[in-house]
Amino acid sequence: MDYVQSLRQKVGTQPLILPGSVVLIVNHQGELLLENRKDGGWGLPGGLMELGESLEQTAVREVKEETGLDVRNLQLLGIFSGETYHFTFDNGDEIYSVTAVYWTKHFSGTLQVNPNESKEVRFVKSLPPTLKDEYKDYILPYYPSILETIRTSESM
């Protein structure tokens, strides 16, 4: 049983503050890795922190679980929290998420779908119309500068 499930047994659907991480993984063509999540819409690989993990360790573990990729050299872009990141799920569970957003262009492994998490994972050139709003917040402020960083580093 994971940490959140054990908390839910004690507090029911009451609001919880839950930390987690997501990662913008960008390939050399400037494409962003997205997953068509089973819980609806497209999003970034990532998830909730487990006991004893750092936010960066959470990011690395979640990317591996959800995509099969190993990521390294993560760079922190920002932390997102507050009323905007209050969610109520279909089962009534409420959370306030505190999400660390990282990016990297350093990854290895074979891209694969974890059927427990998503329907599809792939690199995209443009953001799909069904990208969940919270992920837009994580991507849009940073993606142009990430692409510029990649372009500049490869032209040297």
TrEMBL record:
In its keyword annotation, does this UniProt entry include Hydrolase? yes
Query: From the Swiss-Prot or TrEMBL record, what is one GO molecular function term?
Result: hydrolase activity
Q: Which CDD domains match?
A: NUDIX_Hydrolase (cd04677)
Cofactor(s) needed, names only, are: Mg(2+)
Nudix hydrolase domain location is 15-148
Q: Which Pfam families match?
A: NUDIX
List the coiled-coil residues. Answer: none
Asked if the Swiss-Prot or TrEMBL record annotates the protein with the keyword Hydrolase, the reply is yes
Question: Which UniProt key words apply to this protein?
Answer: Hydrolase
- Identify its protein family: Belongs to the Nudix hydrolase family.
Q: Mind telling me what this protein is named?
A: NUDIX hydrolase
Read off the lineage from the record.
Bacteria, Bacillati, Bacillota, Bacilli, Bacillales
